[in-house]
Design a protein that fits this description.
single chain, 168 residues, mainly alpha, two-stranded antiparallel sheet, 6 helices, 2% strand
Length: 168
Amino acid sequence: MPSEQEKTIQRLNRSRKQILNAMAGLNEDQASSLAVTGVWTIKDLFGHITAWDTTILHPLELFYTSNEFITEPIEDYLAWNDDQAEQRAVRSYSQILAEFSEIRSALIAAYQSLPADMLLEIFTAPWGDKFTISKMISGLAWHEVEHAKEISQWRKSMDLNNKNKSLF
């Protein structure tokens, strides 16, 4: 029977596969210029997901030098999201994709290296709720799945609205 840590990593891998499948077949121009949700493109969504992964990765990395897992609280997540999107807007699609992959790999590696007793402790997540690290990371997977669903729904609506001139 898989451990909670193994299940969490499986969730991360499934959510990543789901979002990549949702955008499969789109070219760089489509992923970087067509708004999927609000004004955000797929490129923006990938940067957004990466930003949230980083909110857990950085405290995990610091844990190895300080033996403390302390997240930075995000009081206003909407303003924080906008700030993160603005910072990443200047990056190319290929840079965003590379960071998207690298940060997730680093997050999984750091999480896998945690001592077992730390997995049972309760910590404050950047968004304010108290969880174990496994639950926080599972929350990141849930978040990614939600955006994968948005991309899938957007693609279906584009297909319906453009039967004769599909973008895909």
